Amino acid sequence: MDLANFLIQLLNSVQYGLLLFMLAAGLTLIFGIMGVVNLAHGSFYMLGAYLAWALTRQIGSFTLAVVAGAVLAFAFGWVLEKLLFRHFYHRDHLDQVLLTFGLIYVFEELRSIAWGDDVHAIQVPQALAASIPLTVNLSYPVYRLFMSGVCILLALALYLLISRTRLGMKIRAGAFNHDMAEALGVNIKRIHAVVFAIGVALAAIAGMIAAPVSSLYPNMGSQVLIMCFVVVVIGGIGSVRGALIAALLVGAVDTFGKVLLPQVAGMLVYMLMAAVLLFKPEGLFKQ
Q: Which of 73, 98, 244, 245 has the fewest CB atoms within 10 Å distance of its CB?
C-alpha cells in the first residue's frame, strides 16, 4: 500500500469512526444515564436518512433539510420519551428489550407506509461534489471531509454541553446518583427527556449526512445497530469519551481490515471487542 492509498484509507476510517461515534454517543448516553437498553436506536438512523431524502425533495436544499430534520428528530425523541420510554425506566431490562425490539418493526412498517420499499438515493450537494486530487489517478471526495467536519463539530458541542454547562452538570449528577440528584431538586424526568431527544437527534443527523454516500433501503438501521453496540461495549457503557475512542478504533480496524485482510475482515471488529473485554470487562473507560 503506497502513501496515497494509505492516506485515503486513513481518511475513510476516521470518517467512518466519527459517524459511528454520532450513533454510539446517543446510545451510550441513553443507556448510561437512563438505564434503557434501546434496540430501536438504529431505527432513528434510518429515520434521519429518509427524512433527509423526503425533505430535500420538498425543500430543494439538502442543508435546510438536515437542519429541519434535526429539529424534527429532537422533537420526535422528546415526545417518544414522554409517551413511552418514561414508563419503562424502572422495569427489567428484558421488558425494555422487548419494547424496543417491537419498535423496530413498528418504525419499519411506518417507513414502508410513508416512503415505500424502493431503494432511494440522495445526490451529493453541488457545492460539495468536488474531489481533492492526491495523485494523478487518486482523489478524495470533499463531501466525505464535510461529513467528518460535521461529526467533529457535533462531538465538540456534545463535550461542551456535558462538561461546561449547567445542563451538563445536571446530566452528570443524574448519571452518577439518580436519587441524590432528584433529592437536591434536579428535575430528573426533564433531564431524561432531553438526553433521549439528544440521542435520537444525533442518530438521525448521522443518517442524514450519510444518506448521500449510501443508498436508503429497508432495514438499514438494523445493520448499524450491531456496530453501535460494539462501540459502546468497547468504549465503556455510559462513557462518551470511550465511545469516541472506540468508534475510531473500530473504524480503523474495519477499514484497514477490508483492505489488508479481506478474508477475515468481517470478524476483526469482534475480535477487537473480545480482546478488550478479556482485559477490561468494563470497557476502555468507566462512566
A: 98
Nearest C-alpha neighbor of 39 from the set 114, 113, 108, 119? 108
CA angle, 137 as apex, 258 and 120 as ends, to 5°?
60
Eight-class DSSP state of 32 = H
Q: How many Å is the maximal CA-CA distance in the chain? A: 65
Give the pLDDT confidence score for residue 1 in this predicted structure: 67
**Closest to 238 in 3D by CA, of 175, 169, 184:** 175
Give a three-class secondary structure readout of 188-227.
HHHHHHHHHHHHHHHHHHHHHHHHHHCCECCCHHHHHHHH
Helix 142-164 with 3-34: angle, nearest 10 deg: 30
pLDDT digits (tens, 9 = 90+) for 2-44: 777 888 889 899 999 999 999 888 888 888 777 788 889 999 9
DSSP 86: G
